[in-house]
């Protein structure tokens, strides 16, 4: 890492578990002030208390990212508390895998709302603060570049994230905003726990267990790599798979 991040300010959504929690911790370990957003307030409070022992600081801001007013309040609250906003990490996501023929359209709607619509709105809301030298980091997926059976709905949201972000990159590059799409492969987190189809869930859990899956910290290191580059370097896309993931 070549840029000193001490004193910079970040928001991380989905910071109550998995990749978001690890990313928030990694940024705070670099001396950043980090607003932690997700719905499970007690998890955020506990992470904020842990972070307080290190070089950075963290503020728990319970937020449902599908609620636009709550996202506005998250950004305003972050700027009020820490004076600025330099890095916004759109990480909150759900993966409700099902075959199209069996899918519950309400699950599709939930994935579109959380993975795509909320990310689009938060990106727009954060932009005025990021202009002049800020980073927008979108946690997409390998599923944003490839497709697989049972993932059609999830693929649609992550391909949407990639398309939205590359167009936004072209619009904002002249304003000093860097965009990074992070595309993890299999990471050991709670993500699979919510898969509604029991057979699909068992199959995916077995698939993840069959390899030496990534840890959330591996993805956090990718976020740090991108954000830590000198300002003339923009890491637009990072795909990170376990070595033994086909
Ligand atoms: P987790 O299930 O551990 O984390 C998901 C996070 O999203 C939680 O903190 C959850 O918090 C938050 N979240 C879900 N819905 C909302 C909402 N409405 N408002 C606010 N926060 C919400 O999974 P991961 O850490 O794995 O997932 C993080 C991201 O990584 C996702 O975008 C996922 O698609 C992506 N990813 C994960 C991969 C993996 O293998 N694990 C692979 C590729 C991409 P809470 O419930 O407290 O609101």
UniProtKB/TrEMBL annotation:
Keywords from the UniProt entry: Oxidoreductase
Any single Pfam family the record assigns to this protein: adh_short
Coiled coil: none
InterPro entries: NAD(P)-bd_dom_sf, Sc_DH/Rdtase_CS, SDR_fam
Keyword check for Oxidoreductase: yes
Record family assignment: Belongs to the short-chain dehydrogenases/reductases (SDR) family.
Record's protein name: Oxidoreductase
Protein species of origin: Haloglomus irregulare
